[in-house]
Specification:
The chain has 324 residues and is α+β, with helices and mostly antiparallel strands. It is built from ten helices and ten strands. 45% of the residues lie in helices and 17% in strands. This is Phosphotransferase enzyme family protein.
Length: 324
């Protein structure tokens, strides 16, 4: 399907004046594009064009049928998210509006609102305290909004490092306590009574900010699915803060997230203080396990990764101690 023609038909634009490649998708599965429109209701749109054929390479050498099947499923999950869930969010957990899609045998196109046309800008890789506070608020509001949602047509367990989908990386790990505890970690995270929808790839690169209002929006929902909110939290903090800062202030950011989550559950969804406290207590206990679960993935996928720092190791030790 020719991209410009499809977008013109979808938006009733007279023409596409300019198409800009914003970034290539991981492992060369396609690209993310901004299309400037003439004669349409919106000045521009974002289109994610996915090539569903197997790639020839992987940035870290993990190409193969297992990874390809996971990627194909992730793009279908993202389409399901935009079709069925994006419209259920609020301005407190802003996401792009879904505009339409094309599904072919070998390609998929998802067209969505261009958030930058409404004043949003990408976050800097290392967040200011104000931007981190606002992003934690987005996570808390998102998790409160979808608390107890079944996640129909999404991942049954969100996050791109979920154990069931990462058996190759598990096999590549050196044997040791963390590898031996991998199934128990996964069971504890999935067995929590309080499940919500998690973004699944909540790194700073997937958030935008509106400079005037400070509002946050999120993109890239390939790995959205059921889970405990601290999985998103651990991943966000690990992408936003260096090891020294995590060691100094990680627990403070955790408490801020939990306080914001509790307030959102009570004020917007009419939970009792006792029920909101129960969620926060369980998720606080699972916070080290969320870190350990991601450390398990990294040790198999990229053993020298910069995120394998002292804070992650400390949380992993706490998690393993909980399981014994």
């Amino acid at each position: 399907m020719e991209l410009s023609s499809f977008v013109c038909d979808l938006t009733r634009a007279q023409a596409v004046d300019h198409t800009q490649l914003l970034q290539k998708l991981w492992s060369d599965y396609g690209g993310l594009y901004r299309l400037q429109l003439r004669g349409a209701a919106m000045a521009s749109v974002i289109a994610k064009r996915i090539d569903l054929l197997p790639p020839t390479s992987h940035p870290r050498g993990w190409q193969g049928q297992i990874g390809h099947a996971r990627k194909q499923r992730s793009y279908q999950v993202e389409l399901n998210w935009y079709r069925h869930y994006a419209g259920l969010t609020s301005s407190l957990c802003r996401v792009p509006a879904y505009l339409g899609c094309h599904q072919g045998d070998d390609d998929l196109i998802v067209v969505m609102e261009d958030l930058q046309s409404t004043g949003f800008e990408p976050l800097e890789p290392r967040l200011t305290d104000a931007h981190l506070l606002a992003t934690l608020r987005w996570l808390a509001e998102f998790h409160a909004r979808f608390m107890a949602d079944n996640g129909d047509c999404l991942w049954p367990s969100g996050c791109y490092w979920h154990l069931e989908t990462r058996q190759q990386e598990l096999a590549a790990m050196d044997d040791g306590p963390l590898k031996q505890a991998s199934a128990a970690l996964d069971a504890a995270l999935q067995g929590c009574r309080y499940q919500t929808l998690v973004h699944g790839d909540a790194k700073t690169a997937n958030f935008l900010v509106q400079p005037d209002s400070g509002d946050i929006a999120a993109v890239d929902f390939q790995y959205v699915g059921k889970g405990v909110g601290v999985r998103d939290l651990a991943y966000l903090l690990g992408s936003a803060l260096d090891d020294a800062t995590l060691l100094a202030s990680g627990e403070r950011w955790l408490q801020h997230y939990l306080d914001t989550l509790s307030n959102a559950l009570q004020q917007r969804y009419h939970w009792s203080p006792q029920a909101a406290m129960a969620v926060c207590q369980q998720w606080q206990q699972l916070y080290p396990l969320a870190w350990a679960d991601f450390e398990r993935f990294l040790q198999g996928w990229s053993p020298g990764h910069w995120k394998l720092g002292r804070y992650s190791a400390r949380q992993t030790d706490l998690a393993l101690a909980q399981l014994t």
